[in-house]
Design a protein that fits this description.
CATH topology of the largest domain: Immunoglobulin-like
Radius of gyration: 29 Å
CATH architecture of the largest domain: Sandwich
Strand order of the largest sheet: 19-25-24-21-22
Oligomer: single chain
Helix content: 10-25%
Largest sheet: 5 strands, mixed
Number of domains: 3
Number of strands: 25
Length: 426
């Protein structure tokens, strides 16, 4: 249980040490040195200030007031204890030296706003702990796309699922680290854990990222360029915690993206579809070192996923997905129909409005407005098809949309469906 607790809090699995655990021990050591009460044999970590330090770290600012004399409304003279105020920016802790022995404890008060114990208990209910990993000065953002496909049937890992992971570092961060035209050597890592954060698999390697425009700056507003990389791995079906991490070996800056994913099972004989992946350009990728970026290649088409899934209305959206286990007729040909619908997502509604919508749909009313709908039929001579086409959104308003693709096998009668969300930029 303790191992799970600290594993979950490790900010960067790429490093040898758990920085959060080291910080915890450092806070305990500081509290024992600074706040211990030797005459009462009380360790510093057990004191009120020590407990606060261990939970939240050192405050941004500490202010101490002097003890002084005061009077009550009835005229009695009172001693106002010295106080320490620990300012954390968004909250403050208050301690009193009630016995003038420099052993500060939570301030007493009749109302929550000035009662230190109440403030502490309230804060640990909201935020049990606080730690901000510096990431080498400033955290690197890692926009990314994870798409799932069936592994080749003739591969040693045919029972596993192929994960195509694309990630990039925004150009502004690249220039801040080493300049756009300078080589950027990264240490990258990919880590898979089970639901209890027991490590299942990991990959670590040094890598020089490749500069590629993620969006067509001539067509897409607010576009940004990225150093882009691709990581293709195979994992058995199941639920995993995943951590994608990079460290710039020159500047020390780092980034980590964590999420929980379910790796799908594409085995079996039924009709299946991979994830649907979107791109706003199909660039020509020159150079042998860049050839591994394309998820799909056909002639001059080199499909590289868009990391943001944000597109300009004037630019076609390129779509790629794979279909498995198509039936073949006696002549060895497959026949299938593809229907796709693009719908504008409705704005958030109240519970009553949503209930009315559901009732309306049951009665054949209140359908969501359709932006685009299209169908076409195709044929082939393989049970697996890699499908690439595009949709046009010219004239449609900005906002989020759902793209639903449904494929029907006209020989077996089976069907499969996928949905993906994207945004049209203003």
């Amino acid at each position: 249980m303790q191992q799970h607790f600290w594993k979950l809090r490790d900010p960067l699995f790429l490093t040898e040490a758990n920085e959060r655990l080291l910080e915890h021990f450092g806070r305990i050591a500081y509290a024992n040195l600074r706040y211990n009460v030797p005459e009462k044999d009380i360790a510093g970590w057990k004191t009120d200030r020590g407990q606060t330090l261990i939970r939240f770290g050192l405050p941004q600012q500490r202010v101490r007031t002097r003890a002084d004399l005061g009077t009550t409304p009835s005229g009695h003279i009172t001693l106002n204890a010295s106080r320490e105020f620990w300012d954390y920016g968004d909250f403050q802790m208050i301690f009193d030296d009630r016995f003038l022995n420099r052993n500060y404890s939570f301030a007493w008060g009749s109302v929550g706003e000035v009662d230190g114990k109440w403030l502490f208990e309230q804060k640990i209910r909201e935020t049990p702990e606080r730690y901000v990993f510096p990431h080498g000065g400033r955290r690197l953002d890692l926009p990314h796309v994870i798409a799932q496909f069936r592994s080749p049937e003739d591969s040693a890992s045919a029972s596993s699922t192929r994960l195509e992971i694309y990630f990039g570092i925004p150009d502004s961060s690249v220039q801040a680290m080493s300049g756009r035209n300078q080589p950027l050597v990264l240490r990258r890592g990919l880590f898979f854990f089970d639901e209890n954060w027991n490590e299942i698999r990991q990959w670590r390697e040094d890598r020089q990222l490749i500069y590629l425009a993620d969006m067509d700056s001539a067509a897409a507003p607010n576009s940004s360029d990225h150093l882009l990389d691709r990581w293709s791995v195979r994992m058995p079906p199941g639920a995993y915690h995943v951590s994608l991490e990079v460290v710039d070996k020159n500047s020390g800056r780092s980034g980590a993206e964590r999420k929980t994913i379910t790796v799908e099972d594409f085995s079996g004989a039924s009709l299946r579809m991979s994830n649907v992946v979107l791109a706003n350009t199909a660039p020509k990728i020159s150079g042998e070192e860049n050839s591994g970026l394309a998820l799909y290649q056909n002639g001059e088409v080199n499909f590289v996923p868009c990391l943001s899934y944000r597109f300009a209305a004037a630019t076609p959206i390129h779509v790629y997905y794979e279909v498995y286990n198509l039936a073949l007729a006696a002549n060895g040909q497959s026949r299938y129909r593809i229907d796709y619908v693009v719908e504008s997502q409705q704005e958030a509604k109240s519970l009553v409005s949503r209930a009315v919508d559901r009732i309306g749909k049951l009665l054949g009313k209140g359908a969501r407005p359709i932006a685009i709908t299209s169908s076409f039929e195709s044929a082939g001579d393989q049970r697996l098809e890699k499908l690439y086409h595009s949709i046009a959104m010219l004239g449609h308003p900005a906002g989020p949309y759902d793209l639903t693709i449904r494929l029907t096998d006209q020989i077996s009668g089976q069907s499969a469906e996928r949905r993906v969300t994207f945004e049209i930029a203003k």
